[in-house]
Amino acid sequence: MLDYAAFPKQRQALICQILQENGRVVCAELASRLNVSEHTIRRDLHELSREGYCKKVYGGAVMTLPEAGDYSERKEKNTATKSRIAQKCAKLVKPGGCIFIDTGTTNLAMAEALPAELALTVVTNSPEIAAVLLKKPLYDVVMLGGQIQRASGGCVGASAVAQIQGMLFDQGFIGG
């Protein structure tokens, strides 16, 4: 058996492997499993966090998700899959309803796929989705305001949250 106390890089590699398998690690459990102190594990997690492999949380760490990329880049990826999802979601929308469409590239495809002849109220936090829906004359479009987040292309923050509180929707389409 490898002496993990003497080999920090091997220990950190094992921690990364456990993170990938479980999505999270707990300092006390790792210390016991690797026969090192919790302080050593916290130091390893600090190093791994600095390198972008995980995010430190109280008592351990969680795996970081890979960067999704810029909104304009994501729009061009997986277009066939997004189109299939968009078509299926669009078929779920009933005329006369009030729906919420979150920002996101798949939700943008869904907004484009919605039939123009539906009489519908749509609330969105995405300026791009609002612009698509404004081309459909029977749609009432409500745009939530706030600071536009570059990564998502949507309005976020306290202003958007305050505006949406108390609104009721028949359906909501939330991006991931």
What is the secondary structure topology, with strand pairs?
Blueprint: H1 8-22, E1 24-26, H2 27-34, H3 38-50, E2 54-57, E3 60-63, H4 71-75, H5 79-92, E4 98-101, H6 105-113, E5 120-124, H7 127-133, E6 139-143, E7 147-148, E8 155-156, H8 158-164, E9 171-173
Parallel strand pairs: 4-5, 4-9, 5-6
Antiparallel strand pairs: 1-3, 2-3, 7-8
Number of strands: 9
User: Which percent bin holds the helix content?
Assistant: 40-55%
* N-to-C series of helices and strands: HEHHEEHHEHEHEEEHE
Work out the radius of gyration: 23 Å
The rounded distance between the terminal residues' Cα atoms is 42 Å
Q: What structural class should be given to the helix and strand makeup?
A: alpha/beta
Describe the largest sheet: 4 strands, parallel
Q: Describe the global form.
A: elongated
Strand order of the largest sheet: 6-5-4-9
- CATH A-level architecture of the largest domain: 2-Layer Sandwich
Which CATH C-level class of the largest domain is it?
Alpha Beta
Short descriptors:
176 residues; alpha/beta; 9 strands; elongated; Transcription Regulator spoIIAA; 2 domains; 8 helices; 4-stranded parallel sheet; Arc Repressor Mutant, subunit A; 3-stranded antiparallel sheet
What does this molecule look like?
- Helix content is 44%, strand content 18%.
- It folds into two domains: 8-63, Arc Repressor Mutant, subunit A (Orthogonal Bundle), CATH 1.10.10.10; 71-173, Transcription Regulator spoIIAA.
- It has helices at residues 8-22, 27-34, 38-50, 71-75, 79-92, 105-113, 127-133, 158-164; strands at residues 24-26, 54-57, 60-63, 98-101, 120-124, 139-143, 147-148, 155-156, 171-173.
- α2 packs across α3, α5 crosses α6 and α6 packs parallel to α7 (127-133).
- It starts with 7 loop residues before the first helix and ends with a strand.
- It has 176 residues and is α/β, with parallel strands linked by helices.
- The protein contains eight helices and nine strands.
- The model has no long low-confidence stretch (mean pLDDT 88).
- It has a four-stranded parallel beta sheet, with helices on one face. Strands 1-3-2 form a three-stranded antiparallel beta sheet.
- A hairpin with a 2-residue loop joins β2 (54-57) and β3.
- The protein is elongated and about 70 Å long.
